[in-house]
Amino acid sequence: MLSSDFKASLEEIEKLTKKEIEEIAKKAADRLKDLVSTNYKKFTRKVIEDLQYAYKAYHRRLLVIAGLNHLLQAAYAAYTLTKYEKLVKSKDGARELKVLYVFHDEFNDAKLRKEVVKRVIKSKTNLFSLTIARYEESDRYLGTTFKVLVLDLVNDLKPNDVGRLVDVVEGGGLVIFFVPPWSKWDKWMTLFKQNLLIFGYNEPRHIFISWFKRKLMEHKGIHIYDVDEDEPIKSEILEEKGYTRSKPEPPRETRFPRKLYELAVTQDQVKVVKAMEELVEKPKKGHKKVIIVTADRGRGKSCAVGIGCIGLIHSLLEKGRRKVRILVTAPNLTSVQSFFELALKAAEELDLEPEVVKRGGNILELYGDNFSIEYWEPIDIPKKSADIVVVDEAAGIHVPLLHKIWRAHRRLVFATTIHGYEGAGRGFSVRFLSALRKDPRTELIEVEL
Q1: Which tens digits make up the pLDDT trace of 168-214?
Q2: Of 112, 84, 150, nearest to 13 (Cα)?
Q3: Sheet of 146-152: strands edge to edge?
Q4: Number of domains present in the structure of the chain
Q5: Domain of 344, in residue numbers
């Protein structure tokens, strides 16, 4: 019976085969409403009500689900996602909602939670697009944006993982944590704690998780539920005023078509697109033109650079260039998907009839009869020829390699986050940017959002 599966001990769960896990998850998805308690349904209504205020204010909310009942943790989270989908659909219509689910795949209980959420999303929702990742590969999602993030923190909690991933969620989005039983979590033995142990000491200091729990209780916009006791630990509605984004105004005089400026959703993005017009003209012989775009997380810098690249292609072709080649790089391919999505939209807006090359579901290249925008690994960029080079999330690339890219090309755009996890490395601003500012042969244009 499914009910006994839900009460299975960790030892019993570890013995389950992949097929058995999938079968249990399928049953859970089929019987989702029956499995969710009346108390949790009431709790979810409050969470969704709070999310309505968050959505208007373009703020995020955090849902923490604690307990030993691994399957109910996942079932409750999945139930909340079905209700959240209805909320977003009522606000924005039927658009794709990206979900990032991150877990430790070496634990069967983690596989079970993942499989339940996956099955429910597949069978009970229409708008969610699910990406499943392991923590070991989480750095590839820097610079990406999702509507929902699910972090399975039962087996481990590393500060870097949380700092790296939470900021991928856009305003109005939802973050979900799976955590151990709330009362036992402080002394829960995680992988991170085990790695901190040294010879002669069998018990680590439990400082970070105690601090982390305290902050979860102190801060607003966080809902916590205990599945074992079937009761909320914390839940409050934060009534916030709605946020209205002002419509950006294009510059009076532009080199790029005004259609492109109309794709910008903020005045900051307009600033970036306008600055990129400076790259239409070649730098003087022996000189370089470099645009530096710095911004806080979530300001749309990558999208704006994508729009600007299509403007450059259009303008260079109008000047008589037979073919335009733009190279784009970043710490990984997923980091430039926002760039490519807006570049694709802009290219279609100008009837450039772009073709798309994908790898593993990610855009790798856009091309037409007389242009191409290609992603290459950072190490390859100095060896390639190009009209324009774009380096996104530049703070995530080693400074010596940034210098090589700069020396190898004449027209470049470096975009990076200056705060948050992506901008935590100071090498870009302290070492690389200062070198550019001192170089007399580099015409530097800085745009801060």
Answers
A1: 899 899 999 999 999 999 876 666 655 555 555 566 666 788 899 99
A2: 112
A3: 128-134, 97-103, 146-152, 169-179, 61-66, 222-226, 231-234
A4: 2
A5: 258-448
